[in-house]
Amino acid sequence: MTMSTRASQAWVIARIEMRRAFFSKRALWVYLLALFPSVIFIGHAVDMKFQQRRMASGPKVSAAMIDSVSRGETDAAVLKRLGEPADDNEWNRRKYKETHAPNGQRRYEELPDLERHRHLAYSDGKRRAYLHFVNGMLESKNVRDLGNFEEDRSIFAAVFQYFYLRLAIFFGCLGIFMNLFRGEMLDKTLHFWFLFPTRREVLLLGKYMAGLTASCVIFTGGALLSYAAMLWPHGGVEMQAYWQSVGWSHVMWYGVAAVLGCVGYGSVFVAAGLLLRNPIIPAAVLLAWESINGFLPDVLQKLSVLHYLQSLCPVPAPLDSDVPPLLKMLLNPAAPSSKAGAILGLMGVTVLVLWAASKAVRRLEINYGTE
What residue intervals traverse the membrane (predicted)? Predict the structure, then answer.
């Protein structure tokens, strides 16, 4: 049998399996997992667009005027100097005095005077200032950017590396690739494939191609949709400069990282489905290993799929400022591998794992009674 014939057989098997991978009921949660971040980014983008249009249609003041406002000023003085605000809300709040009863129980006594609150909002076109007055005096000032592109890029980098690479692609590949053989054994339908006049290695290749196509389309599409939603509310000179410099490169490398994540994790889980009767335990062990990756020595960090996937990401994930200092000391990320090294390393591991899976599928015996 020639290689072209085997390739044609693998493609036929892949086309049949792709229908199941894309449209089976088992795949519904995979779509939800892949599209969940995009819903959040789209909601954030819509809110930003609404705020930008609202600010564009309202009165504007200069950035210097907003910066000149300081605590202790009266609302009348601010209104006189800055003019009409974009928002002006007033309300009264009752004041209470805490007292203690003879038995020690705390009580709150209502005072006759009302506390007057006022909220003014100003915009300079790029920022929005929220001024909160209590009894006519400025109590707090909060200035926010209407859209911080660098901050949004960092947020997406964190979502991609902490959610997509560590959770979504991992569990998505677990669900898709584990069912390629293990699911058929549970459904008692695998023997139909073994009656197909082709080598079992070709069957493995066809099923793997189907799972890989489905996972790449679903998770790469979900990640790029989230990225597009993140970019949507931004525009102007900043975005033009971004696309002319590193924009398309970032899109490409995020896509490559998602695809190679599916390639690597997919090969591991299809092999686990063939070699182990209960592959959930090794999947949990692998998840734990990937989760503690940042705490391991450099040599051990390089023995994980996650290390090479993170090396491909164009923007490093920010570390939360709320992380305890002791945890920051323990975190010791290894130096990222070169992009070429990361790709070759992942492909090498994939080939090795698929070779082991081909040996396992050749020796596989069907005994539905033990499943």
Answer: 28-46, 163-181, 202-232, 252-276, 283-300, 340-357
